[in-house]
Write a structure and sequence with these properties.
The structure holds two protein chains of two kinds. Chain A is an all-alpha fold. Chain A has one domain: Fumarate reductase/succinate dehydrogenase, transmembrane subunit (3 helical TM bundles of succinate and fumarate reductases). Chain A contains five helices and no strands. Chain A is elongated, with a radius of gyration of 19 Å. Chain B is mainly α. Chain B has one domain: Up-down Bundle (3 helical TM bundles of succinate and fumarate reductases), CATH 1.20.1300. In chain B, helix 1 packs antiparallel against helix 2 and helix 1 packs across helix 3. Chains A and B meet through helix 2, helix 3, helix 4 and helix 5 of A and helix 1, helix 2, helix 3 and helix 4 of B.
Chain lengths: ~130, ~130
């Protein structure tokens, strides 16, 4: 007998409440990261020794701002998933593990928001 | 989590059982560079927020990044980023089912390592040439 609700059967999720999403998201962000790493390195090389005004002006190009935003968000998503695995691999004391997993999530959100805020602020010339 | 009631039962072999090798080193380095880049994100976001806020903040970050210690950290950051990216591509190739033969795995490990070092040197040669 299948002890699952009809919704549970359709979603195909086990007791962990997650299927292959973690693995899949790691791959999606890995693939997206390849061109974004190229962009980041190229951007840094093109703005070495630039003044703050020049950095702000560079972000007023919408393509640069969007690519930098994607770089930050993709990086943050990828690193959160990655560190989650590291924590789960090495930390086996429950309260420490959940504390670190929470910290990981909080850190990722702060980085995502702070990075996005900075980019938008410069992009809109505020 | 060994079952002490039957100490003689076979256990899954762990790290200390295997002879170290390049592929093992690559696996470990991929994880270490990943964790290092996690911390490196803080540097990138610090730089962005400084640029977005004030000349004073921006000048301070630029001074820190421009110091010899800052440059050393950024050099490590560059190598970690490139190595982790190339290592990631190596993993993606495995994900689609290619390159599992022992000689292929060894070869891709050597290529990844060599390419990461060469590309890092090229990026820094360009950087030092520009600035």
């Amino acid at each position: 007998m299948l002890r699952k609700t009809p919704l549970g059967q359709v979603l195909g999720l086990g007791s962990a409440k997650a299927g292959t999403e973690h693995w899949w998201h790691q791959r999606v962000t890995a693939i997206a990261g390849i061109p974004l790493v190229f962009f980041l390195i190229a951007y840094v090389l093109m703005h070495l020794g630039a003044s703050r005004a020049e950095i702000v002006a560079s972000m007023q190009n919408p393509i640069v701002a969007v690519l930098m935003g994607l770089t930050i968000l993709n990086l943050v998503w990828h690193m959160r998933l990655g560190l989650q695995v590291v924590i789960e691999d090495y930390v086996h004391v429950d309260h420490t593990k959940y504390f670190l997993l929470l910290l990981n999530t909080f850190f990722a959100w702060v980085m995502a928001l702070a990075g996005t805020y900075a980019i938008l602020k410069m992009s809109f010339g505020l | 989590m060994a079952d002490t009631r039957n100490a003689g039962r076979p256990l899954s072999p762990h790290l200390q059982i295997y002879r170290g090798g390049l592929t093992m080193l690559m696996s470990i380095v991929h994880r270490i560079t990943g964790v290092a880049l996690y911390a490196g994100t803080l540097l990138l976001v610090w730089w962005l927020t400084a640029a977005a806020t004030s000349d004073q903040n921006f000048d301070m970050v630029q001074a820190v990044f421009g110091s010899w210690l800052g440059r050393l950290v950024l050099f490590g950051f560059t190598w970690a980023l490139i190595h982790h990216t190339l290592g990631g591509i190596r993993h993606l190739v495995w994900d689609v089912g290619h390159g599992f033969a022992l000689k292929d795995v060894e070869m891709s490990a050597r290529l990844t390592l060599a390419a990461s070092v060469i590309l890092t040197i090229i990026v820094w040669a360009v950087a030092l040439g520009v600035s």
